[in-house]
Specification:
The chain is α/β, with parallel strands linked by helices. It is built from 11 helices and 11 strands. It has 2 domains: about 190 residues, Rossmann fold, CATH 3.40.50.720; about 100 residues, UDP-galactose 4-epimerase, domain 1 (Alpha-Beta Complex). The protein is about 45% helix and about 15% strand. The structure holds nicotinamide-adenine-dinucleotide (NAD).
Length: about 325
């Protein structure tokens, strides 16, 4: 299968690329960032800006992918700092990808939406079809992306599908999400002996471990269309409080100093997101099931974080 991935230089793409190559897919990447160290040799890496239609059109016309996985975006916390740039990348970028798919006969576009598509005041667990009233530029652009993709499916026959990811955790470099505190407890806890989270100890949002997130993408991407009752699916795994994450880290790093100093802006974003997602549509339609709970994730993550710190030394991820 020929797959073009936008924005694969980030947190998700870094873990996704070796898995796609490993299962035999022919992969090209379109990203503003240079080819990272460790990117599988089989992957074609093209640098470009998703806000320029001609750049993504040129690659799509040449590579002729069966599918585009559209990951390129500016995430929540970063997007609040540069809202107009976030608007251009997330809105124009998504339209450009859908247009490239229409122009060059791409069968499927996979979209990575987010819990940031939701706004405050929803009753937990939050289902797929609630009012979407996000308060961040990131969330606004993701809701628009979901709707635009459904428009292209209805009007131009593109198979559009995707997930609303919770905050994702892996041994990687977070891309400016408001959920980054969780990973930094593990990374800075191990590297510096402590971390001060920018949220309250009782802050709670849905999280997912990256291997589950990638498996969800692959399973939904490959699911028979006839099984799918919708385009965009909530997917859920765990909803620990920040303090419960801290306890999981404390149990694995004796003496680690994990404290909390809530930043009003970022805490307000966390408060506007759901605590718990209802993902029963994903479970019923394409058999979604998460594997990693907080304990299993922590056990699996610790050695990987250690390897990351050993490999990157001073360049390991800094505080978000
Ligand atoms: N990581 C999470 O917790 C999370 C949660 C929910 C949804 N998502 C979604 O998943 C997708 C990938 O997330 P991630 O965490 O890997 O993001 P990231 O920020 O780590 O990576 C984003 C990538 O997009 C690229 N990019 C940015 N602007 C670009 C432009 N103008 N043109 C081309 N490329 C550009 C960056 O260079 C980077 O490689 C995003 O769409 C994000 O909204 C992520």
């Amino acid at each position: 299968m020929k797959i073009l991935i936008t924005g694969a230089g980030g947190q998700i793409g870094t873990d996704l690329l070796p898995i796609l190559v490993g299962r035999g897919d022919d992969v090209a990447v379109f990203d503003l960032a240079p080819r990272p160290e460790g990117c599988p040799a089989e992957v074609e890496w093209v640098r470009g800006d998703i806000t320029y239609a001609e750049e993504i059109n040129t690659l799509t016309a040449r590579f002729r992918p069966h599918r585009i996985m559209h990951l390129a975006a500016i995430l929540s916390a970063a997007g609040e700092g540069i809202p107009h740039r976030a608007y251009r990348i997330n809105m124009d970028g998504t339209r450009n990808v859908l247009e490239a798919a229409r122009l060059f006969g791409v069968e499927q576009v996979f979209f990575t939406s987010t819990i940031a598509a939701f706004g405050p005041g929803l009753t937990s667990p939050v289902g797929d079809d609630v009012p979407l009233r996000p308060t961040t530029m990131y969330g606004i652009t993701k809701v628009a992306g979901e709707l635009l993709g459904e428009y292209y499916e209805a009007n131009f026959g593109i198979d559009f599908r995707g997930v609303r990811f919770p905050g994702l955790i892996n041994a990687g470099i977070p891309g400016g999400g408001t959920s980054d505190y969780a990973l930094f407890m593990y990374v800075d806890g191990m590297r510096s002996g402590g971390y001060e989270s920018f949220c309250r100890p009782d802050a709670v949002i849905p999280f997912m471990y990256m291997p589950d997130a990638i498996r969800a993408m692959l399973e939904l991407m490959d699911a028979p269309k006839a099984d799918l009752g919708r385009s965009i699916y909530n997917i859920a795994a765990i909803s620990p409080t920040a303090d419960e994450i801290a306890d999981a880290v404390r149990a694995r790093i004796p003496g680690v100093d994990l404290t909390f100093a809530p930043d009003p802006a970022r805490q307000a974003i966390l408060d506007s997101w759901p605590d718990v997602l209802d993902d029963s549509n994903a479970r019923n339609d394409w058999g979604w099931n998460h594997e990693f709970d907080l304990e299993a994730m922590s056990d699996d993550l610790m050695p990987k974080v250690k390897a990351l710190i050993d490999a990157q030394g001073e360049n390991a991820p800094a505080h978000a």
